[in-house]
Amino acid sequence: MQVFNLINEISFNANFLEANVLNIALLLSGLIYILRQFLGSMLNIRQEKVLFAIRESEERLEQANIRLKESEKQLEQTKIVINQIIQEAELTAKKVRESILQQGQIDIQRLTAAGKATIASADYQVKQQIQQQIITLAMQQVRIKLIDQMSADIQEQIINYNITQLGDKI
Predict the structure, then answer these.
(1) Are 23 and 13 in contact (CB under 8 A)?
(2) Can you say how many angstroms the Cα of residue 72 is from the centroid of all Cα atoms in its chain?
(3) How sure is the predictor about 15, in pLDDT bands with cuts at 50, 70 and 90?
(4) Model's pTM, two decimal places?
(5) Neighbouring residues of 20: CB distance < 8 A, sequence distance ≥ 6
(6) From which residue to which does any coiled coil extend (predicted)?
(7) How many CA atoms lie within 13 A of 19 on its CB side?
């Protein structure tokens, strides 16, 4: 009640040029009281928006960190798979190399055996031809000697001998 009495005693001067400091203070305190709620609610709304944006940013950061961790895990798994593929490729290359070497050795052995067989066959054919030529030459020499040494008496004895042999068989 004393406050009301004090306000009644102080009169409000509407002329701003003649106003005293007390009128200005009253005007300012009224403005502050009225604008405080308005400005406070505006600041609260702005604060809520900023806090919401911060929370959203923190959530996005959290999701980005989760995605980053997942990507790092996938990268590690990919590295493991790549290393396995490299090891398998090296093992396969080693097996293929060994297989080629084994096949090469088998081919060399086969070609060596075939070469030896060819040489043996050629050697046999040459020996056969030489024997045939020796026999032919020997027969020709025997024939020449027989022609030179054979007389009519010897031819008759050979014919009679062959006839006797045929007669014994019959």
Answers:
(1) yes
(2) 21
(3) low
(4) 0.43
(5) 13
(6) 54-88
(7) 14
pLDDT of residue 67: 96
Q: How far apart are CA 25 and CA 31, in angstroms?
A: 10
26 class by beta-carbon count within 10 Å (0-12 exposed, 13-18 middle, 19+ buried): middle
E-only strand ranges, 40-164: none
- Cβ proximity of 52 and 59 under 8 Å: no
How confident is the model over 157-166, as pLDDT tens digits? 888 888 888 8
Cβ-contact 19, 13 below 8 angstroms: yes
Rounded to the nearest angstrom, the gap between the alpha carbon of residue 11 and the centroid of all alpha carbons in its chain is 96
- Those residues with Cβ within 8 angstroms of residue 12's Cβ, 6 or more apart along the chain or in another chain: 23, 26
pLDDT band at residue 6, thresholds of 50, 70 and 90?
A: very low
Instruction: For residue range 22-31, list pLDDT tens digits in order.
Output: 666 776 777 7
